[in-house]
């Protein structure tokens, strides 16, 4: 599954974008969207031009995490303008197209494929250094559609929590990437430990290290671990990415290590 996009309109739009990174997870609730948003914001804060595309049709949380729910998009017959967060970061989410954020989306596979295709062909990102895609958890219709339609994405960042029940699904995710010839940029282990704010004791709520062991076992890079940190929940609920709103914390510093290899991507032909 490598090569330029087959669809001519997608090919044209995507030729303006240097690197495309798909954020995946085996399960929901492991922090995939949090990682996708903070990755996009981190890259943008280094001066890169970044687009963040949320294709999590059944649970789009990017607008909430960026505090832009209910935003109104501009567009013409031929194209849709993504929402500009600042000079370097634009965002597009399926949530912007739903009438109410509480609406449930009941769509079958072909319709999802069509919508993702339309996102890729009609959203006018302009020239970008990175397109970060927040995909739904698992290996269903949406991740398959985005990998196939992009054709030459640079790779996947896979987010997991450390316990075996999550790791089992990450292995499936890696197999999915391999079958589609999508490079795995690496695995992020989230919620690896918790430091009690009262006594300072470190507790490994979901155990720790499972992501790294699995990454070594499956011969893929391990990008780093993030603690379970209440400031992430506060930042997320306030719609302010923690890498900027809690920039001085150990968690934000740990995140910088995860971003470093992504900053070195050169784009895939
Ligand atoms: P997913 O996209 O995998 O479903 P989200 O990124 O939406 O997961 O995160 C689910 C919830 O967990 C959110 O409330 C988020 O703020 C919280 N969360 C994510 N990572 C952490 C963390 N490291 N520490 C504390 N809370 C976190």
Task: For the structure shown, list the relevant keywords.
alpha/beta; two-stranded antiparallel sheet; Rossmann fold; 269 residues; eight-stranded mixed beta sheet; 10 strands; binds adenosine-5'-diphosphate; 10 helices; 18% strand
Write up what this structure looks like.
There is one protein chain. This protein has 269 residues and is α/β, with parallel strands linked by helices. The chain is 37% helix and 18% strand. The protein has a single domain, classed as Rossmann fold. The chain contains ten helices and ten strands. It has an eight-stranded mixed β-sheet with strand order 3-4-2-5-1-6-7-10, sandwiched between helices. A two-stranded antiparallel sheet has the order 8-9. β8 and β9 form a beta hairpin. The mean pLDDT is 90. The site of adenosine-5'-diphosphate has 17 residues, from α2 and α8. Adenosine-5'-diphosphate binds next to α2 and α8.
The CATH H-level superfamily is P-loop containing nucleotide triphosphate hydrolases
Q: Unreliable segments (pLDDT under 50, ≥5 consecutive)?
A: none
What is the helix tally? 10
In CATH terms, what is the fold-level topology?
Answer: Rossmann fold
**Topology as a string of helices (H) and strands (E):** HEHEHEEHEHEHEEEHEHHH
Portion in strands: 15-25%
Annotation, overall tally of beta strands? 10
Tell me about the biggest sheet? 8 strands, mixed
Q: Any idea how many domains?
A: 1
Rg calc: 18 Å
Bound molecules: adenosine-5'-diphosphate
Across the major sheet, the strand order is 3-4-2-5-1-6-7-10
Average pLDDT, rounded to a whole number, is 90
Give the termini separation: 12 Å
CATH class reads: Alpha Beta
The CATH architecture can be given as 3-Layer(aba) Sandwich
Structural class: alpha/beta
Globally, the shape reads globular
Query: Helix fraction?
Result: 25-40%
């Amino acid at each position: 599954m490598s090569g330029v996009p087959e669809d001519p309109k997608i090919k044209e739009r995507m030729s303006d974008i240097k690197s495309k990174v798909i954020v995946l997870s085996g399960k929901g609730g492991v922090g995939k969207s949090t990682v996708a948003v903070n990755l996009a914001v981190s890259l943008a804060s280094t001066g890169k031009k970044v687009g963040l595309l949320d294709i999590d049709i059944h649970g789009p949380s990017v607008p909430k995490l960026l505090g832009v729910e209910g935003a109104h998009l501009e567009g013409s017959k031929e194209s849709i303008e993504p929402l500009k967060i600042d000079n370097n970061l634009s965002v597009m989410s399926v949530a912007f197209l739903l009438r109410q954020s509480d609406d449930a989306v009941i769509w079958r596979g072909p319709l999802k494929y069509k919508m993702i295709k339309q996102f890729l062909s009609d959203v006018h990102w302009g020239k970008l250094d990175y397109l970060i895609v927040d995909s739904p958890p698992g290996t269903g219709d949406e991740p398959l559609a985005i990998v196939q339609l992009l054709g030459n994405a640079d790779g996947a960042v896979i987010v997991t929590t450390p316990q075996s029940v999550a790791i089992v699904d990450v292995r499936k995710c890696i197999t999915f990437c391999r079958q589609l010839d999508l490079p795995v940029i690496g695995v992020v282990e989230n919620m690896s430990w918790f430091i009690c704010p009262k006594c300072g004791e470190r507790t490994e709520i979901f155990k720790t290290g499972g992501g790294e062991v699995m990454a070594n076992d499956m011969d893929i890079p391990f990008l780093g671990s993030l603690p379970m940190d209440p400031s992430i929940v506060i930042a997320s609920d306030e719609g302010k990415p923690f890498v900027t709103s809690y920039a001085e914390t150990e968690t934000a510093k740990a995140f910088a290590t995860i971003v470093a290899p992504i900053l070195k991507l050169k784009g895939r032909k």
